[in-house]
Amino acid sequence: MTTPELSRNTAAFYLQAAISFGVAMLAVGIGIAYLPVDPWVRAFLALGSLYLVTSTFTLAKCVRDQQEASTVRVRVDEARIERLIAEHDPFAVKPLAGAPTL
């Protein structure tokens, strides 16, 4: 059985994603700061933007975890662990090594 190759992202992709995220957050922050509205409206928009960003990170993590959980390797590992647990008897008395049997 061969292990499926995991796709790896390059450092350039991570850098591009981080810069893109930073630029987007900066643009939204500047847009909210210079919006010609009352301060409470700005605060509401800023809080809503922060909530949207944290929810996006949470959703991305859940999608990634679900994708990783569905790989064949993880399912095989889970099956092995379940078999070991099913075969294990915590109350079984095992004779000591070198002890005479009666």
Tell me what the structure shows.
With 102 residues, this protein is mostly helical. The protein has one domain. 69% of the residues lie in helices and 0% in strands. The chain has three helices and no strands. It has helices spanning 11-33, 39-69, 72-87. The longest helix has 31 residues, at 39-69. It is elongated and about 90 Å long. The mean pLDDT is 86.
Features:
102 residues
How are the SSEs ordered, and which strands pair?
Blueprint: H1 11-33, H2 39-69, H3 72-87
In short:
The chain is mainly α. The chain has helices at 11-33, 39-69, 72-87.
What integer value in Å does the Rg equal? Answer: 27 Å
**Euclidean distance between termini CA atoms:** 45 Å
> Mean pLDDT, as a whole number?
86
Low-confidence stretches: none
Structural class computed from helices and strand pairing: mainly alpha
Q: What share of the residues lie within helices? A: 55-70%
* Major sheet description: none
> How many E strands?
0
| Strand residues, percent | under 5%
